Amino acid sequence: MQKFSFYSRFSLFLIIVCGTCTYLGLKASLFFLNDRFAISHIETPPLFSYRIRPPTQQERNQIAKLCSAPFRYLGQGSQCYIFENGEIILKLVKFNRFRQIRLPLFEGLPSFLQKMHLAKQELKNKKWEAFFQSCKIAHQELFYETGMIFYHFYQGCELDLNVTLIDKLGRQYSIALDRTYFILQERGELIGPTFQTLINQEDFQGIKERMTQLITLLNTRFERGIADNDPALSKNAGYLKDRAIFLDIGGFSKDSSLKNKEIAQNELNQMILPLQTWLKHISYN
Q1: Contact at 8 Å (CB) between 130 and 163?
Q2: Residue 246 in 3-state DSSP?
Q3: CA-CA distance, 185 to 144, in Å (whole number)?
Q4: Nearest one of 195, 231, 234, 247 to 89, comparing CA atoms
Q5: What is the mean pLDDT of the chain?
Q6: What is the pTM of this model?
Q7: pLDDT given for residue 226 in this prediction
Q8: Max CA pair span of the chain
Q9: Residue 1's pLDDT is what?
Q10: Which residue in 85, 61, 58, 59 sits closest to 73, CA to CA?
């Protein structure tokens, strides 16, 4: 039997190591180029379930129609991956952001490491519960104001529908909607591009109407005693054809003090002033 020399064995070892490193490096590069999207991040057992009632047959038919065409990757927020299909947005919850893998041999770790690990998991749990409660508030009290079409935070055979996703790299996936938490919303245009278009068209009446719609939207939130812990209008609010809506639904919480007109007015002024300043600056230039 022919024996391999030391150099032959060493060369084979180097080839295997280099090949493995190249494969893992390529896989990691594609993962980051794909905005860290992975099916495993959205198909995860739920932490909480929320359902007011099962979907009606009419809702199933509507969702089947809306999801008949593929959804293309649009971007991601801190809590969701976002896909678009024409005028519809599909938001898929990023469970990986809230899940912490239990360390092997956890019981054998020093107590301070156990405490650090448990504290980190507790923080993730609190973030999830805050996000979960925010989505419930949006569904129950700001459904129209968020352009929401359907809300699914329940895992079970209710829809029996698949949807095709196309990721940032153009790869296609077919996923079962019942295995995900998702939100369907009407697609709104950001505030900046909306006003820029109106300014370019010198449509000053349109600017006034859009500003009124935005103020009405904010006042509705105040009147219902709902706070937003990320109130940046430039990225979290936008416009449909007929109204302003909240694009981001992940930062809502209850705050009855906002029902006070003076407090609400101060809040409104702080939020609108940067937009008014920007509009004046852009108009004069």
Answers
A1: no
A2: strand
A3: 10
A4: 247
A5: 84
A6: 0.82
A7: 96
A8: 92
A9: 45
A10: 85
